Every structure is written in C-alpha cells, then in structure tokens.
Amino acid sequence: MILAAGRGDRLRPLTDSLPKPLVEVAGKALLARHLERLAASGFRDAVINVSHLADKITARFGAGAHGIAISWSREQAPLETAGGIAKALPLLGEEPFLLVNSDVWCDFDFARWRGHALDGRLAHLLLVPNPPHHPAGDFTLERGRVGNAASPRYTYAGIAVLSPRLVAGVRAGDKAQLAPLWRAAAERGEVSGEVYRGLWSDVGTPERLAELETRLRKE
Question: Are 78 and 52 in contact, with CB atoms under 8 Å apart?
C-alpha cells in the first residue's frame, strides 16, 4: 500500500494545485518512482489511498502504471495513516503487506522485503539515522526489536511491513494515526525493525525538496 492521501500543507503553495505524490524530484513524480521501483522489485499490485486532489492522481495512473496494477481507496477527507489503512483493508486482504509513504525518496531495495514474514509480530519498520529536522527520532532499536526508550533513537523512514491486525481496532472511516498503535505494539514486543543508512529523504517542505534536488545533481 502506498499512502498518498495527505494534503501536503508544508509544501504549499505548490500543493494547492498539485497533489504531493505528483511533486517531481529529478524530473519524475514521487509516486511514479515508487511504482517503477516496486515493479522492478517483483511487486505486481498496489493499493493507493487518495483524497486531496484525488482525481489528478487517478487520472495520471489509472488502473495500472509502470508495471503495477492499482486499486484506489478514496477518502472524502484524509483519514490519517491508520485510518487510511483501515478503510483500505478490504482491498489489502489478510496477509502482511509492504507500506510506503508516497512522500519519501529512498533507494532501499524493496525486493528484500517481498514476502517478508512477520513471524507473529505486527510490523517491521525501516528506520534511518535522525535527520536535522527530526533530531529526537521516533523509536529505539535493540537487537532488532523496536522500542520506546530514551536513546539511542532513530527516525521512521516511511517504509514498513505491516500486519492488518495492527489496525483491527480502527473502524473504517474513522481518523487514526499509526504512531500510537506502533508504540503500544512496541511495548508488547510486537514490532521489529532495521536501520537503513543509504539515501533517504522526507520530501516534506520546499527546503528539503530543494536540498534533495541539489544532492541528486551532485551524485
């Protein structure tokens, strides 16, 4: 599942008329790049939730694009992360699935996680070293187990393998965020993770978008 329903308020005024998943980096829309890389990694189907300027996104990609068949989950208003996933569960099925935020740029190899087994856990998170704009991080990681301790902390990269059971308590159509569910599951020892130290960026503001463009030009 690709999360693509957010309004992208921090990228305004660009996102007043352009949905954030269609923002281009290095000449390519964020969502298009995700679809291409997922297809190259062996994935064939994706569920994408949309809300803000949804028609522009669905018109661009239709029922399939870049080798990926697409099922759309429409939200009248953005339902946040857990709410969007809960609404899309009928399209996702009962097995664990790869979850990707549409607004991250990362060269992580998705093929590593195709068919990833959670072994009874509720999630497996990709974490990255804390960027300057998020110095406090989100979670700790010790021996592959995600936790909520004080340090050392890492930032969630916007990429995970998720069990549908994590959002089983969220009613379809309700707003809900994933972070509290992950924190509670981590306290129970039900979340694993790993740290990725390759190229990663949260394209959340005009400044970070410009920084990423500059970095890619140099490489």
Answer: yes
**CATH code of the domain containing 190:** 3.90.550.10
Predicted pLDDT of residue 219:
60
Q: Which residues pair with 104 in a beta bridge?
A: 202
Which of 137, 122, 153, 132 is CA-nearest to residue 211?
A: 132
Please tell me the total count of domains within the chain. 1
Contact 5, 51 (CB under 8 A): yes
Judge whether 125 and 155 are in contact, CB under 8 Å.
Answer: no
Q: What is the pLDDT of residue 205?
A: 84
Range of the domain at 205: 2-218
> What mean pLDDT is reported for the chain?
92
Parallel, antiparallel, or unpaired for β 104-106 and 145-147? unpaired
Tell me the angle at which helices 54-61 and 30-40 cross, rounded to the nearest 10 degrees.
Answer: 40
Q: CA 147 to CA 182: how far, in whole Å? A: 9
Q: pTM of this prediction?
A: 0.94
